[in-house]
Specification:
The chain is mainly α and 227 residues long. The protein has one domain (20-52, 61-225): MetI-like (MetI-like fold), CATH 1.10.3720. Helix content is 79%, strand content 0%. The protein has 8 helices and no strands.
Length: 227
Amino acid sequence: MPPVMLPAYTFDFSWVQGSLPIFLQAAFLTLQILIWSAVLSVLIGLITGQMLMSRHAWLRWPARVYVDFFRLTPILFQIVAIFFLIPIVFEVSVPAFTSGVIALSLNFGAFFAEIFRAGVQSIDKGQWEAAESMGMPHVKTLVRVIYPQAIKRMLPPIGNMLISLTKDTSLISVIGVAELFNTAQNVGAGTFRQIEVLLLVSLFYLLINLPLAINAERLNRRMNVAR
């Protein structure tokens, strides 16, 4: 049987000029999702990480259940579940944008909690004992002694998590948020140039993530030099 010859594919980017404003709006929306989710997930992770290290079981166990649930279940399931459950449980109408930010924040907050926990626990116990011998309160010891040392070890995983968060913003397209990936699907369906659309969207994600990666690496080197 003779081999089947497929026609050569011809790239066509003539549609880009007309669709560029839509992609710029989608990129701005993606940045909003990223910023809100990053801030909230870091705060959640910071608080939960401390709860994981608490001596009190009534603080430690709820934090562990939360962290394990959001780390061990698919984020896509979490996004859809939160989008449908919030209106049912709380009887309020929540925009898809807000539901998506909540889901991403809770998911990445669980991972940040483990990063903060591991970073703090990596510091030698002698640091705690020295601060305690000087009469320094627990919170003050954390802020002025432990975290300044631990943050140097946390920077690489924190930077990686922020890059992953940028990529995972595409998942909330499943609930109709018009971020970059959702917009790419719509434009690709209208222009029949799916390959070109995906190449353009990958460029947008690269432009967002590249500064994050460069600055995270630069900050990591600076803090390591300052040791």
